[in-house]
Design brief:
315 residues; 0% strand; flat
């Protein structure tokens, strides 16, 4: 051990003079250097764009039918859950055998198709100059999601993997982990990450855009959401949830809908709806907030209609 310490010290001492004798090299040609950096940056950008386009194409192909979606899901499971395991082949084969019926089921394939379609829209959204161009696709997705809700509710037995495809955020999904999609997904502040969250999708992906445009279609999104919630509760056959929805949730959503009437330039209609709500729901926990908002809206109108004080003519 003592010999090794001496040897190491000797190596250090022998290198020190060489390091001290090193001198700077001649300056590079700045123009040439900058051109090379520009070329490298462009190449790197093109490479990333090419990789992103390839991933989008792969997901697009898998989203065409249930069998293709199930096949891509199986590949993702193999790469994420079984890669590196000592008994990978046997374990993965056992998983496929145990999941064969599930992967062929209508519910699982529907959930996979919805997940992949939503993931595809998210990947396309980040680079859109005008997010409004994607609204028809998002609304079509929401309607498909709403239409499939009853199928998922009736799945027997209920399956956690099916639920996870719609309830887990995109940036945590099996596909994002496998394909490393994180950097290409939009910001969660402007895009709902949960593929099965109807309320979040309508609010973040649709209403924010419609509000900016003062688009009357904004009001109909609330009707769609309320109908979805009502149908979901009816399917669940819970009297308590139904009572809560009718007494608390629906009036709250109707008030938000009325606020959006103001956004699209219909304040009088908004006030009519708001006053109706406070009359019919005096015991609602949001009653004080509603009344306060009504007062805010009435003040400008009252100021406009109140008689003006005569000018002071005193000498």
């Amino acid at each position: 051990m003592k010999f090794h310490r001496i040897l190491a010290s000797g190596v250090f001492l022998s290198l020190a003079p060489l390091h001290a004798q090193q001198q700077d090299v001649a300056p590079p040609n700045v123009e040439t250097l900058l051109k090379e950096i520009d070329a490298l940056e462009l190449k790197q950008k093109q490479g990333k764009q090419s990789a992103r386009n390839a991933l989008i194409s792969q997901i697009q192909s898998a989203s065409l039918n249930g069998a293709a979606a199930a096949n891509l899901y199986t590949q993702a499971i193999e790469e994420v859950q079984f890669k590196g395991k000592k008994d990978k082949v046997e374990a993965f084969t056992a998983w496929k055998k145990a999941h064969a019926d599930l992967l062929r089921s209508k519910e699982m394939q529907t959930a996979l198709l919805l997940h992949l379609k939503y993931l595809l829209m998210a990947l396309q959204r980040k680079d859109l100059e005008k997010p409004a161009t994607q609204l028809p696709s998002v609304m079509a997705y929401v309607k498909d999601l709403v239409a499939s809700e009853e199928d998922f509710a009736n799945q027997k037995p209920p399956n956690d993997e099916t639920k996870a495809l719609l309830n887990k955020p995109l940036n945590q999904s099996i596909f994002s982990q496998w394909l490393r999609l994180g950097e290409w997904l939009p910001n969660e502040k402007t895009w709902e990450m949960q593929p099965g969250n109807v309320a979040g999708i309508l609010e973040k992906n649709v209403r924010t855009i419609l509000r900016e445009q003062k688009d009357p279609q904004l009001i109909g999104t609330w009707d769609l959401e309320m109908q979805f919630e009502a149908d979901r509760i009816t399917t669940g056959r819970s009297e308590y949830q139904a009572d809560q929805f009718n007494a608390v949730t629906r009036p709250r959503m109707q008030f938000k809908q009325a606020l959006d009437l103001v956004t699209i330039g219909q304040p009088n209609r908004a006030l009519t709806e708001m006053i109706k709500l406070v009359r019919e729901n005096p015991g609602h926990q949001d009653f004080p907030v509603w009344v306060g908002k009504i007062r805010e809206l009435v003040k400008p109108a009252r100021a406009e209609t109140s008689p003006q004080s005569p000018p002071d003519t005193a000498p």
